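Holo prediction. Input below; ligand is adenosine-5'-diphosphate.
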Amino acid sequence: MKRILTGIQPTGTLHLGNYFGAMRPAIALQEEGEAFYFIADYHALTSVQDPARLREYNLGVALDFLACGLDPARASFFLQSDVPQVTELAWILTTVTPMGLLERAHSYKDKLAHGLPASAGLFTYPVLMAADILLYDSDVVPVGKDQKQHLEITRDLAVKFNETFGETFKLPQPRIQETTATVPGLDGQKMSKSYGNTIEIFADEKTMRKKIMSLVTDSTPVEAPKDPEGSNIVALYRLVASPEDVATMEREYRAGGVGYGDFKKRLFGAVWEFFAPMRQRREEILAEKGYVDDILAHGARQARASANHVMQRVRKAVGLREQP
Ligand code: ADP
Ligand code: TRP
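Structure of the complex:
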């Protein structure tokens, strides 16, 4: 069976961009093979350096993923840091990693350009990510476009290792989610927590309504026709409303006579309804004490079993003693 693996960093509260761009497609793949999904909390340490916040984000991401349909009976769901062997593999991989490969990494260069202080952890981030993938003999890795280069680095390191020490790692295939359009944020730019323009999936009703009503629009008067293309209201509505409702909104945009305020109210209603079953599931999970911890503990046991297997191979290949 194909092993499908992906990770998400717990660096904030999940928003509609994360849902449509990453969570929904990853969750859909759990039907196609043996899925391993993990919360990349070691990676998060490169930007979250507040223990209470890290714990809160870890739990929040776990809860939100389960509420959104990750099925623990099909997928192993775990915290990256519950399988510390990944750091051992990352170390071994650094020894075959050319400096230049990391120096060319876009995400590292982007983060520097945005003023993030450059720790060695940030620099070697792609090596830890390669370890995440290679440690579990992953076949398919679904990720957003922004992670494409990290997948190329992973493949390069696997090839380099195999050439140096003999066939050890399986080469993973990236599955780049090109089809998911970028979800726009409140200001029309890409929705991202770093731009402060997000709509959180599980915001309370008042907060979500307020956010949606604050969507930035142009100043076309109520009676004038409006262009649905390029409208962030319509773009978001397309994600959550039925095709008929979308067609109605587009028609009313073109005809004029309806103001942006009305469209936003309709959008709020549709978003709220879209996530209603997931909100309910979230409440049920919250009411079941220990549920999330149990799932993560179970996932970690499965992940560790697979990790031990690969690490024996790796240790042997490089000449380290196999673990007793
Ligand atoms: P943020 O930009 O808020 O920091 P992350 O980079 O942590 O979000 O996002 C995790 C994943 O969610 C990304 O790899 C990407 O696939 C997806 N994602 C985030 N924002 C969007 C968006 N606006 N549209 C589509 N996908 C998104
Ligand atoms: N770097 C990824 C991101 O920011 C998260 C991640 C860490 C990941 N390790 C991974 C994704 C392994 C896929 C496979 O989105």
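Residues 203-274 form a domain with the Tyrosyl-Transfer RNA Synthetase fold (CATH 1.10.240.10). That is the main takeaway for now.
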